[in-house]
Amino acid sequence: MNALSDVRAMLIESATRLFADHVDAKLLDAAKRDGWSPTLWDIIEEAQLPLISIAEEAGGAGGSLSDLAAVLRIAGRFAAPIPLAETATAGWMLARCGLQIASGPLAFGPVHGETVTAHQHGTQWRLSGSMQRVPWARIAQRLVVLASGPEGAMVACVDPMQCKINAGRNLADEPRDDVVLDNVVVAGSLAAPAAADVSHAAIKLRGALVRSLLMAGALERALELSARYATERSQFGRKIGQFQAIQQELARFAGEVAAAVAAALSAAGALERREDPLLAVASAKIRTAQAAHEGALIAHQVHGAIGVTDEYALHHSTLRLWAWRDEFGNEAAWAAELGRAFAAAGADQLWPLLTKD
After folding, report:
1. What is the CATH number that goes with domain 200-355?
2. What is the DSSP string of 246-311?
3. What is the CATH number of domain 105-197?
4. Non-local CB neighbours of 15 within 8 Å, separated by 6+ positions
5. pLDDT in tens, 108-165
6. Sign of dihedral through CA atoms 310, 30, 43, 260?
7. d(Cα 185, Cα 163) in Å, to the nearest integer?
């Protein structure tokens, strides 16, 4: 094992222990009511997990995108009710544009390609527009917004208290809020021209990647719970895990999980190596979304009625799988995106694109 692998192994061990020590049924139930867990956030922020993959000179904790991917996979496994992925993505936007990374939880937008305009009023920049279903907007300390300015795209950091926020939730009771900006003032040091790689398309790709990683972790947890339940629950005088039909379904579930994890981690590696990200990220979102559909179905079939109860842990994972599957593009949208890219490249390029020849 090389030094890089040693560091990532220690990071994985540390993050796993941290989440295992602090995420329990009581915390998750409270987060369903409150929208998130500020207690868990304080612990995660103190450990600098949201700053992983952002260079130290930019205010981050250093490390690579693959390091962040490992942590997000763990967060998904524990159904962590905090905006870890969103804060990391917003931090990346700020760092790429030379802006200071704000402390506390961050949200970013637009997440659906809406247009927010930036205009100057004297020496101040002001933002106007609306953004739909922004993850965690109402609990964020700052909103990081990609706006259209008079001389091109720009990134600005604004106070959510200046915005009109209509609270919403996804299936897993995570905040997904509509945000209206009406001449929202931006502090002079919190706006800058957008870097070339910070665009609506790049935000969508990053969003799809982090959702794929979170789903990979949630799938692992659902499989773990299903396999354990099959060894504990008896029916007709036998453990249900001894029935061939259950064994076959669990084996199929394990295959779906393995494929989803491999696709998500591979996409993070491709983006880190600055390869053309579309094929890798689109494939990861498609594969993890398909696995979410099949895996949640199998998990609930194995568990029966207990799997949908509030008292049992499974629903924390499967509700997130169903919600995250559609966010930043579902499998149909990404399949169409891939199809357009392959068609534009031409038939002769299909095989080289698939094999990276």
Report:
1. 1.20.140.10
2. HHHHHHHHHHHHHHHHHHHHHHHHHHHTT--HHHHHHHHHHHHHHHHHHHHHHHHHHHGGGGGSTT
3. 2.40.110.10
4. 47, 49, 70, 71, 74, 75
5. 999 998 999 999 887 889 999 999 999 999 999 999 999 999 999 999 999 999 999 9
6. positive
7. 10
Q: Which residues pair with 77 in a beta bridge?
A: none
Tokens standing for residue 330: 């579902």
Among the listed residues 89, 68, 96, the one whose alpha carbon sits nearest the alpha carbon of residue 135 = 89
- Residue 246 corresponds to which amino acid? I
Listed in sequence order, the DSSP H helices in 23-129 are 25-34, 38-46, 65-77, 84-96
Residue 44 sits at φ, ψ, to 5 deg, of -65, -40
Q: Indicate the pTM of the whole model.
A: 0.95
Compute the distance between CA of residue 202 and CA of residue 198 in angstroms, rounded to an integer.
6
**221-258 confidence digits (pLDDT tens):** 999 999 999 998 888 889 888 889 999 999 999 999 99
Long-range residue pairs from 167-172, CB within 8 A, at least 24 positions apart, any chain: 167/138, 168/133, 169/35, 170/133, 170/323, 170/327, 171/319, 171/320, 171/322, 171/323, 172/79, 172/316, 172/319, 172/320, 172/322, 172/323
Q: 21: which 2 tokens?
A: 């020590």
144 closest CA partner among 67, 208, 198, 71: 198
Tell me the C-alpha distance between 257 and 58, whole Å: 35
Q: Which amino acid is at 9?
A: A
Per CATH, 105-197 and 200-355 having the same topology is answered: no
- Residue boundaries of the structural domains of the chain: 1-82, 105-197, 200-355
Burial bucket for residue 303 (CB in 10 Å: 0-12, 13-18, 19+): buried
- Strand 142-149 with 152-158, pairing: antiparallel
